[in-house]
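Action item from last week, closing it out:
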Amino acid sequence: MNSISGGTNVPFRAPFVMAVIGATLVAIGPVLLLSFTPVAADAAMLDGASPRTASLRPGDTPDTAPNLPAHLATARPGPISAVVPASGEIEPYKTFSVRPGPNVPARTLREISVREGDRVTAGEILFVLNDQGLALEAEGAEARLHAARVELERMQQGADPADVASAEAGLLEAEAAWNHRARAVAANEQLLERGLIAEAEHSSSHAQEAIARLRLDASRLAMERISAGPSESEIRRQEALVAQLENERDRAELALEETTVRAPHPGTVAELYVRRGDIVDDRTLLATLMVDDTMILRAGVDESDLVALAVGQPAVMTPFGLPGYGIPGTVSAIDQRAKQQGSATVFYVDIVVANPDGRLKWGMTADAEIVTEEISNALLIPHEAVRRSGRDSVVTVVRNDGSTVEQIVRLGMSDRSVVQVLDGLQEGDVVALPSFAGGAASIDRTTGRLPSLIPTRGMIRTFRVVR
């Protein structure tokens, strides 16, 4: 009879221990086997067969192969882009300096109608200056101009019949006066010879006759001039006077109009430089208006990348203040002169981007990737599938029977996640990726498959592109 105490309990416990060990081996045996044959085990998972007999079903492609493990990928065609990195500062597409007009004299700023950040339309009122006295000046200039125009019109019409008649009457009156004085002189000469009048009286009659004769001559000249009408030179002088008064009137009206300062272009008020009550004139900078529905990234690129750049190339910009906010743009200009940034030599390029929602602000910093080359149908595999073996690039290919083989490949263009295979693989070849923790979590829970490893556009796969 076995005892529970002392050394007599060994025969009782030995079978129990052996049973536990056996059960453990049975439980973990498949796991150990899979751990020693990871690629074969993963291949077996493709159709649920045992690790040693697993294979891809005929006709399976990367998109149709069921339950593709997270550390297997398929060589498949897709687009890939070569990019040049750039970084810099965002600026408005265009800016306008707002000042009073050149015709307004120094005035007090009476009203400011906008604030910084306000969006304005062309012609919208921004500032109002004191217009005291300018309205009276404009009215006076208009009155002087009107009088000069009336006189010019009269001169251009030629001789006025009423003026001619008046001149004729004046001439007849002057002739009668002269005749009367001439007869008086003749009579006084006879009286003087007879000693009936003094010499002084005779001299006085001569003087009066001379004056009458001058008046007669003047009347005759006036009659001739009025009958002939104004001369060409007189008309030209009057026309010049009218033009001068028109300019004075226009300046007076402009001065009055320019006391209201309007937006020269649609845009956003970027900065205000004045306050109400300030004395301003045509040299005073009142505000800066920016056109910000389109912005420019002024970005520097390394001189080694300059040869690959050209105006018109597409780009994607990512502002530092808006992570994950990828915005497509276009290279619009490339500087012809390099600049120094520390020890680096850079060339600046302008990248035009749309800003319809106004999220991009003047002075923001941003990174950009300029697409210098694109291939629309390259054979692509993930970067992590490739490793170096001496001078060669090597991948592990998973065959249909679940076995693996090391394959040398020749690579082409690459981006952050995928690389182009020029030689060594064919479309549909399955390659092994390094195992990684949590890889199974990457499998789509809805379809039970691994999400596509090849991006729609290799260049922008990490961005939420805003169209």
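Closing note: The chain has five domains: 6-36, 41-78+377-465, 85-89+290-373, 100-127+259-285, 138-253.
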